[in-house]
Amino acid sequence: MSKNRGNGLVLAAAVASLLLLLLAPSTLTGLVAIAAVGLTAYLRASMPVRALSLALLSLGCTLGLARGAGGEVLFIGLVAVLVSLITIPNVPGWIKGLLGAAILLISIPIAGFANSFLFELGIQIGIYAAMALGLNVVVGMAGLLDLGYAAFFAIGAYTWAIFGSPQANHFTAGGFPLNGNFFYLFMVLAVITTAITGLLIGLPALRLRGDYLAIVTLGLGEVVRVLANNLDHPVNLTNGPQGITPVERPPIDWFRSLMGSIGIHLDAKTDYQLFFYLLVLVVIGIVIMVNVNLGNSRFGRAWVAIREDETAAKAMGIPMLGTKLLAFATGAAFSGAMGVIFAAQRTFVSPESFTLLASITILGMVVLGGMGSIPGVILGAAALTILNIDILKSFSEYLNSLRQSGATVLGFNLANLPNQFEPAKYERLVFGVVLILMMIFRPEGLIPERRHKLEAEEAKEGS
Amino acid sequence: MLDALLQLLPQVFFEGLLLGFVYAMIALGYTMVYGVLELINFAHSEIFMIGAVAGVEVFRYLVPVIPNALLLLLIALVIGAAISGTVAVWVERLAYRPLRKRGAVNRLVPLITAIGVSFVLQDLVRLIEAIWHNEFFLRINSLPALEQSFSLLGIFIQLKSIILVVVSILMLLGLSYLVNRTKLGTAIRAVAQDMNTAALMGINPDQIISRTFLIGGALAGVAGVLFAVQYTTISPYVGFLPGLKAFTAAVLGGIGNIPGAMVGGLVLGQLETLAGTYMPTLTNGNFGTEYKDVIAFLILILLLLFRPQGLLGQVVKEKV
């Protein structure tokens, strides 16, 4: 009985928000749609009803976005649909695959054509998600706390930025920038160099236990930042704090003609955005595959054993250093590859993108989503990226407009609001609060990995 | 060139000593907390920063009112210590104690919490300063009396530097006495050794941990005020590097070991100042002063490789 009512409610909510989105797509109707996604996820409706509702909602969000309205809220709605697809149990695989692919390959590009900021958002989420998945191997699976992960990202980014721009002319014979086609080669090169760097750092550092490892990697991150900042003399390698620009992008004529052949004609700016978006999706696909396969392999089990109890794992004959090094190097390699994409996509690289805050942000994504859990980590990346480059910025702009309007609230003139006070500058505060609250109330993360969840339950029973 | 280098040496040595005492004072807080909870309290560098900001604020408001430099500094030190100590106690109560009660599953959990706390404190101070004064790069409104200087054996010495050295030595001696000779100190050592057994002996571990944070925080607060007076420019992010180096100093001396933390701080201060001064000269200006931070971390890494127990530490058997 109650099940049927759930069915009706979910369906009604989905249809109602679809209609609302068709009639008047806006931020407000976007919020209604997100609420409808929430209802679909939490009411006990039957499976076909849930699937239908999610399909209707993604259709609604896509159509709304195509008309260029509602902006980021509808985008968040799409992300919410994706998340519910992953988290709702008993949804058949083919529905998940079909709907997920439709959202990733159709809805988001459509939204991006209408509003190029959404493409940028999608690409950034993708880059961070891939990195977070890489860090997930290190922290989530093997339990090694790496606080200098952005260092590998920086090494990857600079590898391409130096040779894919006139920068390299400063210290070797001319001929730079390299042809953009070398981009793909450098992705492979960056994977190799960062994996080797990971090994070199890991070799001494991984003899240490958790806390010390954290400090050493933190120090390493600082060292890389200082080097990036100061290696403009005696030899100008990194161009110091000014950073390197312009960085070459790969030529994509083949991609343009491919898109043209399926009837999509793009202008010179969006074609690169679509290209990078799809490239990032492909890389994430590869990263997920590696993650899953490694997780189920001999090494994956060894990592979990080390994470749970290092002493016991050692006693069972697991080679400590080799196993840990593999995790460290794998994580580093992913980060390096994403660094190359990051450099090419932005055409600009500077030390500012690789601070401790960047490392902690990526760690925050892993922790927030659920250490060791692949869908969780992607959700964490999406949530923190949206929060960081969208919500806080919009809130800052809103405050600025309030300030300029000079309105008074409760006898306080808003024009007197100190102009140092800008929410976009307080991302550390938000991250910090998120990290603390998560650790206190839900240390296993939003979408916990099965084993972490069991552990948490065990600990509760024990106390 | 060698002559020029040697001529600078006494001054460099003195500057290194000052920096070393600052590191030593911060390192003691790390060491105490690590000894009791086995937690690297990342937020400790922000407790230090809060002390520095409190010092700046006290000077801002009291310089016109109180003309006596020593009295003013004393007030600033007391207020700085009180604020930092209180914040440290509340950080422990709000962020770390809930984890302990839950019986933290994973050692990463408290560490990540500590990073979160450190970020929150940085931006909270920035927010407060932004709303209060509409600025967050603070310059201390120091008194000329504190800047008085004289020359001794070719070293340029300011009154405030002498105060820094004297106050830190007094604090370090006081802390040694407190930990080794008093009842509270015995209780702290007991909790550090084995929390459960200490509880059976009638010690309330929560209370002792709270007091450990109070003492460590107050020390960091004093260090912060002296740092602000000595180095004059402060921002909410000023705690990060000294904090990291103080931790390095604590590891250098053997973490959990109070004399070790002191020795580590002084050694690191010397090395850093030496590197910072001579690096540009020795490399003909190719590598600048900025590389002194790199040197600190390289020392940390090398040390952890070859002598993980630190200079004065002993090898601790692993508890299984």
TrEMBL record, chain A:
Ranges that cross the membrane: 45-66, 73-91, 97-118, 130-163, 183-203, 274-294, 325-344, 356-389
Gene Ontology molecular-function annotations: branched-chain amino acid transmembrane transporter activity
Key words of the record: Cell membrane, Membrane, Transmembrane, Transmembrane helix
CDD domains associated with the record: TM_PBP1_LivM_like
InterPro entries for the chain: ABC_transp_permease, LivM-like
The keyword rRNA processing appears for this protein: no
Name recorded for this polypeptide: Inner-membrane translocator
TrEMBL record, chain B:
Subcellular location: Cell membrane
UniProt GO MF annotations: L-isoleucine transmembrane transporter activity; L-leucine transmembrane transporter activity; L-phenylalanine transmembrane transporter activity; L-valine transmembrane transporter activity
Keyword Membrane: yes
Biological-process GO terms, alphabetical: D-alanine transmembrane transport; L-alanine transport; L-isoleucine import across plasma membrane
CDD domains listed in its UniProt record: TM_PBP1_LivH_like (cd06582)
Residue spans crossing the bilayer: 12-35, 47-63, 69-91, 111-132, 152-179, 213-234, 246-268, 289-306
Membrane-topology descriptor: Multi-pass membrane protein
GO cellular component term, pick one: plasma membrane
Main location group: membrane
Stored Pfam families: BPD_transp_2 (PF02653)
Source organism superkingdom: Bacteria
UniProt entry keywords in alphabetical sequence: Amino-acid transport, Cell inner membrane, Cell membrane, Membrane, Transmembrane, Transmembrane helix, Transport
Entry keyword Membrane: yes
PANTHER family noted in UniProt: BRANCHED-CHAIN AMINO ACID TRANSPORT SYSTEM PERMEASE PROTEIN LIVH, HIGH-AFFINITY BRANCHED-CHAIN AMINO ACID TRANSPORT SYSTEM PERMEASE PROTEIN LIVH
Family affiliation: Belongs to the binding-protein-dependent transport system permease family. LivHM subfamily.
Protein name: Inner-membrane translocator
Source organism: Allomeiothermus silvanus (strain ATCC 700542 / DSM 9946 / NBRC 106475 / NCIMB 13440 / VI-R2) (Thermus silvanus)
